[in-house]
Amino acid sequence: MTCTLPPKPNARQLRNEARDLLKAHQRLDASCCDVLRTLRQFTAKPDRDILAADLRLSQVQFALAMAYGFSTWKDLLAYVVHKTENNLEDSYLSSDDPIRQSGFGGGPERWRR
């Protein structure tokens, strides 16, 4: 199962999504099972076995990263942070802005200083 990230992914939103999946698992809500099946130990397991398992947040985060097509949670967050920084940079100054044309590097944070 591969999910699609939203157009403007957000690290906070992904953390909340992982927590919501864990809470769904704790409530024995089978809606979380598709994502959790990305974990090797649950690949061929029925919902009842997945819901009966002990699960930590780190496992859910890993499953969510795998569902989004990443090999680790850290890789997913790094991608989201990179994408967010690029979106900020692109929206902060237009391409015809004198500061951007000057070649002065460092991104929006440095430009503000």
Map the helices and strands.
Blueprint: H1 11-26, H2 33-36, H3 47-52, H4 57-67, H5 73-92, H6 98-101, H7 107-112
Question: How would you sum up this structure, described in words?
Answer:
The chain is 59% helix and 0% strand. The protein has 7 helices and no strands. Mean pLDDT is 82; it is low at 109-113.
Characteristic key phrases:
113 residues, mainly alpha
Strand tally: 0
SS class: mainly alpha
What does the overall shape look like? Answer: elongated
How many helical elements?
A: 7
Oligomer: single chain
Task: Please report which band the strand proportion falls in: under 5%, 5-15%, 15-25%, 25-35%, 35-45% or over 45%.
Answer: under 5%
Helix content: 55-70%
Indicate the low-confidence ranges by residue numbers.
109-113
- End-to-end span in angstroms? 44 Å
Which sequence of SSEs, written as H and E, runs from N to C? HHHHHHH
| Alpha carbon gyration radius | 19 Å
| Mean pLDDT level | 82
Largest sheet: none
Task: Characterize this entry briefly.
The chain is mainly α.
